[in-house]
């Protein structure tokens, strides 16, 4: 019995040593204080299932016919007004004569003008400034620009706008005076023509029907100087005064025409006429019927030549 007790005591000691030293934590039987505290149990609740939507019976609706899509309305806008055209120059004005200051004949130059603005005159070497108010010499005009000399015969030249000088004022004043003088001249010519009317009728059977001046058809004949004796006789008698024999540039050929319903001849003549811009080439024509000059008329306007 004693040996059994010792054996049991030894086995108990071995178990106690095992439980103390070798038993893993949490499995100790005798030395439970050495076990770690138990971990709290985590209860994982399952996520609630999402509620299913309540199924409702489909409601039958009548499908509407698609409405026609209206095209966007085009708003008609009035077209932008065209820029106003420049006013036509008044007939008989200096603006009409120069086509709104775009065409001044070369015969209007040279002419003294006054500078309205300072201008730089260039010379072969260097340049000089001429102040406004000084008199200079205008020698040519092109596309709204004036060519100037600082003095007649000077080599100092400048190109300025016509509005930088008083040329428009000079020509306008000169033209108005010329029109008055021209009107008085035309009145005198009209009076002289009335006095000559009876004389011309008396001479029509002799001077104007001279067989040396026209042929058998009544066509005017040329003279030795290539002019027409019939027409020169008309000029010298004063039937036309604006045409001078010494100012005639060239004679045209006789062309058949109708004059007040009668067969006649038209002969053009180019001559130099005295204008506000000096002598200018002008074209007119004489109308001849039955060997008599019926009249002289400008080829462009058809007006009678004074």
The largest pleated sheet is described as: 5 strands, antiparallel
- Overall SS class: alpha+beta
Total count of helical runs of at least 4 residues:
4
Work out the number of β strands. Answer: 11
Order of helices and strands: HHEEEEEEHHEEEEE
Could you please describe the fold and organization of this structure?
Strand 4 (135-142) and strand 5 form a beta hairpin. Mean pLDDT is 80; it is low at 42-47 and 205-209. Strands 7, 8, 9, 10 and 11 form a five-stranded antiparallel sheet that branches. The protein has 306 residues and is α+β, with helices and mostly antiparallel strands. The protein is built from four helices and eleven strands; from the N terminus they run H-H-E-E-E-E-E-E-H-H-E-E-E-E-E. Among the domains are: 2-32; 99-171, SH3 type barrels, CATH 2.30.30; 204-298, no CATH class. It is rod-shaped.
